[in-house]
Prior knowledge:
This protein is mostly helical. It has one domain (about 1-165, about 275-400). The chain has helices at about 1-10, 35-55, 60-65, 65-75, 75-90, 105-130, 140-145, 165-180, 190-210, 220, 225-240, 250-270, 275-295, 305-310, 310-330, 345-380, 390-400. It is globular and about 65 Å long. The N and C termini lie far apart (about 55 Å).
Amino acid sequence: xxxxxxxxxxxxxxxxxxxxxxxxxxxxxxxxxxxxxxxxxxxxxxxxxxxxxxxxxxxxxxxxxxxxxxxxxxxxxxxxxxxxxxxxxxxxxxxxxxxxxxxxxxxxxxxxxxxxxxxxxxxxxxxxxxxxxxxxxxxxxxxxxxxxxxxxxxxxxxxxxxxxxxxxxxxxxxxxxxxxxxxxxxxxxxxxxxxxxxxxxxxxxxxxxxxxxxxxxxxxxxxxxxxxxxxxxxxxxxxxxxxxxxxxxxxxxxxxxxxxxxxxxxxxxxxxxxxxxxxxxxxxxxxxxxxxxxxxxxxxxxxxxxxxxxxxxxxxxxxxxxxxxxxxxxxxxxxxxxxxxxxxxxxxxxxxxxxxxxxxxxxxxxxxxxxxxxxxxxxxxxxxxxxxxxxxxxxxxxxxxxxxx
Length: 405
């Protein structure tokens, strides 16, 4: 079935998730309410894309209201949401690392593990039930074991839920953060900026070889350098709007990369490489959404920040909700009122049900996992409890002292 295969397959080239990113502001929650609002909007865009696509064939009424689907897929709002999620990760994650702390890397990895994996494993379990078991579909146990690592897309193994590929990108970004800490570069925005430009150049080079030199590489894999570059760019961008002093090279990389993503990328790939605008314009729009949402359009009105707080679970569990609803619908006559509603009504119903499930998962899985990470880091790394303000002040002081060669 079209809607089930779309969810179960590893569709990296149609980013209809991230990406949500499962990150929280390191301190001063009120200041970052606008980031939570951006997360909420990105999650809604992803859900809109998935549900409108999957419920398009429910009945004649959904065909008559197919504009809900066409609006979502005309500019690929799901991909816009994913790009915004990636930029948000770069904006938040590196700044949660306490530079100068003797156990900074271990603390970071432990907290990231407990932030990412418990909810992910629960979604895997429910996904196996909702997408495979109740439909009588098979999924190899060896693939399940690989999926437990969150790196199934790296090993070209089918994912339980197709959107998991964005979590693998997130995981690799965490490893990049570790490498930056170990090399003393986590606060060196010149080095990070140069790395951003290099990764974007690698992405363009791979695509050029693929188009003109018969270089055989999967398009989804060719996107990896671009996705990591967007995250690292978000880090430099955050430092810039926080007022961090940067040299000319860092500033050139920051604003040059922004111009590339907003203008050059869609034009270059459409005119030179012949890509449909739908493949590239969402990257520009995702970055534009992120920039506007962190500057002139900082949204903090309820309930957006709260929805952003549970956005990781919104992202993970919405496919489970809509597949279960589809399972119910196919068991009633096509003329039933359940299958003759406006396409938008199915999007709303799935959204409301997913919010309820996500709130429960956050309350009973995510929040306890976050608290466990905090307790374990204090216990294992002999850390005395500190206020959020003190932690942030320590991190800011360390970054201020960092020199840029």
